[in-house]
Amino acid sequence: MSILRVENAEARYEGNVIFENLCLDVIKGKITTIIGPNGCGKSTLLKTMGRILKPKFGKVYLQDQDINTLPTQEIAKRLTLLPQNPIAPGELGVEELISYGRYPHRKNISNLTTEDKEKIEWALEITHTLPYRDRPLGSLSGGQRQKVWLAMALAQDTTVLLLDEPTTYLDLAHQLDVLQIVENLNHHHQCTVVMVLHDINHAARFSHEIVGMRDGKIMATGSPHELITADTLKQIFHIDARIMVDPSNGSPVCFGYESALAEEEFVLHKEKENVAT
Amino acid sequence: MVNKNRVPKMIILTAPLLIVLVIFLSILYGAKSFDPMTVWNAIFHYHADNQDHAIIQSSRVPRALGALLVGAYLAISGALMQGMTRNYLASPSIMGVTDGSVFVITLCMVFIPSLSSYQMIFASMIGSALGAIIVFGFGSLIRNGLSPIRLAIIGTVIGTFLSSLSAAIASYFQVSQNVSFWYNARLHQIDPSMLKLAIPFGVIGIILALYVSKSITILSLGEDISITLGQRTKYIKIISMLAVIFLTGTAVALVGKIGFVGLIIPHMTRFLVGIDYKWVIPCAGIVGGLFLAICDILSRFINYPFETPIGVLTAIIGVPFFLYLIRSKGGKNVV
Ligand SMILES: Nc1ncnc2c1ncn2[C@@H]1O[C@H](COP(=O)(O)OP(=O)(O)OP(=O)(O)O)[C@@H](O)[C@H]1O
Ligand SMILES: [Mg+2]
Questions:
Q1: Is residue A85 domain-resident?
Q2: Is residue B21 part of a domain?
Q3: Locate the ABC transporter domain: which residues (chain A) (predicted)?
Q4: Are residues A162 and A267 in the same domain?
Q5: C-alpha separations of B165 from A65, B98, B170, B178 in Å
Q6: CB under 8 Å to A226, separation ≥6 — which residues?
Q7: How many angstroms does the Cα of residue A217 sit away from the middle of ligand 1?
Q8: Which of A1, A163, A246, B1 has its CA 20 to 30 A from that of A91?
C-alpha cells in the first residue's frame, strides 16, 4: 500500500525542467532509497514530495490526500523532511533547535508540554547528541551538526521521514549509526522512510526498495537484489560494477567498479566507423 | 531556559524607567537647558504665555517622543527584515525602503501639494512598499541576487537612484527646500500633528511584528525547514512585510531618512538577547528607541550650540559597525 504517491509530476527551477511525468509510489512502512548521479534531481524529487516545491504539473498524495490542499500544519504532523544542507544561525543552541521540531504539535500555549519534552529527550538520546545539548550549533563539527538536524526531524515525531543524504559528513561508524537509527525507527515505530544515499552498499543493506534515477528519470525501482546489478548500475551511473552477495547478511555488495564511459566512447566510435563504411 | 531569558526580561522590565529617564534628559538639555522644576510645571501646570513652557511642549516633548518612536520603528523593521530574509545586511535604509518613501513623498509634494499628515503617512507607506518591491524584484531576477552582499548592493544602487531621481524632480519643480527635510532627518522639526498619527500607525506595525515574531524565528531556520515544520511561510512573509511598511513608512513620514539604526540595532539586540525573535522584536524596539533618543541628545552637544544632524551621528556609529559585519560575517549567509 502506498502512503506517498507522486503522480505525473513536473518540477522546474525558473523554467529549467528537472523532471517531468514522474511517478513514484512509496510503500507504507518500508525504507525506500533513491540513488543516482549528482544533479539528477533526487533532492528536487524529495522536496516535491515534502511540498517544499510545488510541482508545475501533476500531484503528490499523502495517504490519498493531495498534499497541496492539505493544511500544511497537518502535513507537518505526519511528514518531515531533512534537507541536504540545512543552515541555521550558529548561535542557536542544540536543544533549542531540536525543540523547534515540536512546532507543528504546538497548542496555543507557547510552553513545551511534558510530551514535547519527552520527545526532545528521546531524540537527543537516540541520535547520541546528548553531550552537546547545551552547545551552540556553530561550535559543532559537520558530523555532529548533521546528527542534531536528524534529532530535530525525529522530534517532529512523524510517520513519514524524508531524509536527504543523512550520512554526509559522517565517518564510517557514524554513517552506520545513523542508518541503524533509521532502521530502528522503521522497525519499531513503523515509520516510512524515503532517503537519498550515495553509498550503494548502504542502500542495498538498509532499504526494502531502491529507486534509481538519472537525468530526472526513474530508470528502475525494485528490491536491492533486483536493483543492485551490474546492468542497472551501468544504466544509472554509467559504471561497470562488480557485485557479489555479502555472505553475512545476504545483501548485494558492490566491491569494485570502473567507469563505463571509456567503453561507451569506444562503442560510439565503432558505430561511427560502421556508418562511414 | 529560565536562565536564558533573563536578559530580555530585564530589558523589558527596565525599559519604562529608562524611557522616562531619556525623555526627561532629552527635554532638559539642548541649546537652551531647563531646570527640572520648569519641565515639571510645563508638563503638569502648563501656562500658554510662559515661553519656556511653550518650547518644552511644542518642541522638546515631540522631539523626545519622536526619536524614541522612530528608533523603535526602524529597529523593529530591520529585525523583521533580517530574520525573514536571513540576510545580516537587511535593513530599511540599505534595502531601498526608506528611499522609496522619500521618492513618493517628493512626487506628492510636486503633484499633490497640501497633503494632510494622514495622507503623507500613506504616501510614505506606499513608497516603502515600492522601494522594497523594486529591490527584491531585482534581487530575484539576478542570479544569486538575494545573497546578503548582492542584495545590499542592489538596494544601495536602487536607493541611490531613487533618491537622485527625487532630488532631480524636487529641484526641477523647485520644491527642494521642502523635500530636503526628508533627506537629512531633523528631529527638531517634528510636526506634532504627524506625531499624533505616527503613534497609532506604529502601533499597528508593532502589533503585526509581535504577532509574527515567533514565526520569524522558525523562518530564520531557512525556508525549507520552515515549510517542513508546517509554517505558512508566504503568509508570515506578507504580514512581516506589512509591518515593515507600516513602521518604516511612518518613521520616514515623521522625520525623514535616518540610516543605520535599522541595521545595527537588531545585531546588538541579538547579541544581548539571543536569536529568538519572540524577544528580539520587542527588545530591538526598546534598544532602538533608546539609542536614537540618546544619539539625539548627543547631537545637541557635539558642536554646541549648533545641532549636528542626527544622521551624522548614526553614521559615525553605524559605518564601522557595517564594515565589521561584512568582515566577520561575509562568508556565511547566516543571521
Ligand atoms: N534552487 C535551484 N535553482 C536552480 N536550479 C537548481 C536549484 N536546485 C537544484 N537545481 C538544479 O536542478 C538539478 C537537480 O538538482 P538536485 O538538487 O535535485 O540534484 P541531486 O540529485 O540532489 O544532486 P546531488 O546528488 O548533487 O545532491 C541540478 O541540475 C541543479 O543544478
Ligand atoms: Mg541532492
A1: no
A2: yes
A3: 4-240
A4: yes
A5: 53, 14, 8, 15
A6: A220, A232
A7: 14
A8: A163
The pLDDT of residue B227 is above 60: yes
Q: pLDDT category, B177, cuts 50, 70, 90?
A: confident
Surrounding ion ligand 2 within 5 Å at CB are A 43, 84
| Number of domains composing chain B | 1
**A220 and A186 within one domain:** yes
Q: What is the ipTM of this complex?
A: 0.90
Beta bridge partners of residue A257, listed in sequence order? A241
Strand pairing class (A31-35; A192-196): parallel
* pLDDT for residue A137 is more than 50: yes
**Domain containing residue A268: CATH number:** 3.40.50.300
Q: Give the closest of A76, A88, A90 to B228, CB-based.
A: A76
- Is 90 exceeded by the pLDDT of residue B246? yes
Chain A, nearest residue to B140 by Cα: A14
Residue at grid coordinates 520616514: B252
Query: Which chain A residues are within 8 Å of B228, Cβ to Cβ?
Result: 50, 52, 76, 80-81, 83, 153, 156
The answer to whether the Cβ–Cβ distance between A87 and B333 falls below 8 Å is yes
For residue B309, what is the domain's CATH number? 1.10.3470.10
* DSSP string for residues in B184-214: S--GGG--HHHHHHHHHHHHHHHHHHHHHHH
d(CA B163, CA A74): 47
State the Cα–Cα distance between residues B302 and A155, nearest whole angstrom.
Answer: 55
- pLDDT of B288 strictly over 50: yes
| Residue B63 structural domain | 3-90+187-329
Closest CA–CA distance from residue B231 to any residue of chain A (Å): 7
> Is A74's CB within 8 Å of B218's CB?
no
Sign of CA dihedral A167, A170, A171, A174: negative
Of B214, B230, B332, the CB nearest to A73: B230
Q: Which residues of B touch A (CB under 8 A)?
A: 214, 217-218, 220-225, 227-232, 270, 274-276, 278, 332-335
| Same domain membership, residue A217 and residue A135 | no
Domain range for A122 is 90-157
Closest chain A residue by Cα to residue B141: A14
Task: Determine, yes or no, domain membership for B73.
Answer: yes
**Model pLDDT for residues B22-53, shown as the tens digit of each residue:** 999 999 888 788 888 888 888 888 888 888 88
Contact B39, B56 (CB under 8 A): yes
The per-residue b/e assignment along A6-16, b for 16 or more CB within 10 angstroms, e otherwise, is: bbebbbeeeee
Per-residue pLDDT tens digits for A233-273: 999 999 999 999 999 888 999 999 988 776 666 666 777 77
Asked, for residue B102, whether it belongs to a domain, the answer is no
Q: Ligand 1 within 6 A of A168 CB?
A: no
Are A9 and A27 within one domain? Answer: yes
Ligand 1 pocket test target in A10, A13, A163, A200 with most atoms within 8 Å of CB: A13
Question: What average pLDDT does this structure show over A218-237?
Answer: 94
Asked if residue A83 is part of any domain, the answer here is no
In a domain, B304, yes or no: yes
Q: Are residues A167 and A145 in the same domain?
A: no
Given A99, A124, A157, the domain boundary residue is A157
Is residue A62 located within the same domain as residue A163?
yes
- pTM for this prediction: 0.89
The CA distances from residue B137 to A226, A243, A265, B89, B145, in Å, are 49, 52, 46, 17, 9
